[in-house]
Amino acid sequence: MSKPGTITVYTEERGAALGDLFGIFFEDINHAADGGLYAEMVRNRSFEFDPIDRQEYNGLTAWEKVELEGGNCSILVEQANPIHPRNLNYVAIEIIAPGEGVGIMNQGFNSGLPYREGETYSFSMYARRSASFDEPVAVRLEGIDGTIYGEAKVLVASAEWEKYEVVLASSATDFSGRLTVVTKGTGTLYLDMISLFPTKTFRNRPGGLREDIAAMLADLKPKFMRFPGGCLIHDGSLNADDRNSMYRWKNTIGPVEQRPPRKNNWQYHQTLGLGYFEYFQFCEDIGAKPIPILPAGSDPHSQRFVPIDELGPWIDDALDLIEFAKGDATTEWGRVRTQLGHPQPFNLEYIGIGNEEIGEQFFERYTYFHQAIKTKYPDIQIINSSGPFAAGGEYERGWRSARDNGSDFVDEHYYQSPDWFLAHYHRYDSFSADDPKVFLGEYASWGNTYYNALVEAAFMTGLEKNAHAVGLACYAPLLCNVDYVNWKPDLIWFNNHQVFGTANYYVQQMFMHHQGDHLLRIVTDGFAAPAQPAGNKERIAGKLLVGANLNEVVYRDIRLINHETGEVKTLTDKVEIGETEEDRRHRSEFGRKAVVGETGLKNYSLSMKAIRKNGSRGFIMFFGFQDEANYVMWEAGSHSNQESMVHAGSKGYRGCLTQSLFSPETGVEYDLEVRVDGRRIRTYIDGALINDTEHIAPVIEPLYCSASIEESTGDVIVKAVNVQDVDVEAQLLLADLHVDNQLIDVYALSDHAVDEMNSFEEPEKIVPKHESMLTTSNQVSYTFPKHSVTVFRFRKNN
User: Which residues are catalytic, by number?
Assistant: First the structure.
């Protein structure tokens, strides 16, 4: 047990406003929309899947031909007479012999379509027929063995496209179901937009959202929702009509059968059934302010940029979106919103331009967007970008742009090891209140264990305490379908019939439910210093390695320089290293590597000459290499061969310490040097400084604490996170508060092993527990369990 200490909250000393601090970020990654929040149960409902989306896709992906006894037919995807020019594909079923029925069957997402006994489902399709076709079409909810759980008949009465709708009830529960559309007619039957939704959706909206997932988002009580991405914002062509275009919001509104198919940059098909109107509507439903993010005609991944003199339509798109959200029915886009069924404006206060942007091309274009928006809508708060890393050249470029333009926010993104979050707990202490505020638009520690959630909670108290500088923050990614994983960790996991929140989810929920409106001054005193993590806090020592990743590299004249003595030691004359095709199939994250030496020095340089002979990336140098889980490394020419990055691995988790732009050329020899001075790291290419960072060692606080007051209730809220493996005793004192009887609600996460996780089998293994207590004074003694997150809500006495 650690030494008792005191936590004093000064209830009359208000600090910065917390505003809209904690919210959520929705991106269609991990099938978060189609096959996820968007409740459509039919996969590839309009036969628009294509190899453009994913190599193995085609117009009949997820569909099978049905030929019951004696039946014979052919099915073909056609485009000659579509229901809409933006929805070209449909299926033609040519009936050769009807037998007991012929048609098509959909396999749905995951294991199939999920049916529940007694529940009803809304079916719709567009259909037309040849002149000789005159038999009804049977729509069936089936099991994988053909058992029929529900059936309805539809009479296709026209040779022109018409929409047909029926409601079916299921007689059984089966989460691996199928949907079949069969007939005994003759001739040809044409079908498109075959759709099945549960009638019970979130807020019972037809064609709406999956209730269980939407309810979990609503239960967070987020202040805002950022949407629709993510990299899918700017990753794509510049032509709005292209299937792989950048995300253009105007393509996502109006009747779903008229919305174009879209290639999702996470390598699957995006129906856009969940579009901008639905996003705004959902934000309104859950009480979250919308934060739409728009492209600026700049794609750093593929180096596609709209010429400056052609930016007008892109800027108009941003202005039109604001009008769509805020304009009344007399405006062009306010009238569109009204016609879609929402005459009242949406509560739009923020807009973001760009996502994880790097390169001068974006920041040059951002200025034009910023000026146009502020001129027409001065009250809209504009969010700039600072790239996908926590530090470095492009990060600083983003902040310079924000200061120069007077941006309201800068969008910071980072995914890091738990040790990084603890080491950078004080990251925002020195940020100025006079600068643009931070929008921490994507962050997470690498994992969904209880320890990950614990560390994130500690970091979030730091975000609260720096509300003068941090205005918005949201964990990412939000959703993941367990059978379609693009990225992990994620806040919420689901399959076709189950959903659970991770330990990280419940930390976010605790902070959102108990955010408060203004900070209160809080002082901790008298706590014993906790044991600090093992490891050298003064130097980066260990093995020295060189490597190759998706390429072949020759390193020569590899030297170790001791800057304390001036000694220069040649480690090896030449190392040639590369990956074979077999390596590529089974390679580790950073490819192949070779040990060239080892050092325990505090102040040293590792230098060499290097040539890339072939491949798509650059050079790799490891220093301070302990093992595959603990290391520091420099990758010069990473990702799309355009970045110089310093990474640190800690206990198997990797994080980027800093990033700058660098693109090595094949066949060119470079002089590379990494200089280590204690825990400061500088990298040089041909003598020019490229990276400059510090690998900060984590220092554990006795408790991570914050305090706030909720204006509407007068409640005082105190949060305390104990990341230690020992209990911490404390006396909690509310200064300037004089009461006879004080009711306290306590919400706590505790009593879990650090490696425990929630799962489909145990979805509530890690959830907060609630208790109430009564004290007769303005103080309370409390023991914070080891590895715990605790929220006190001191109820105002009425």
Answer: 356
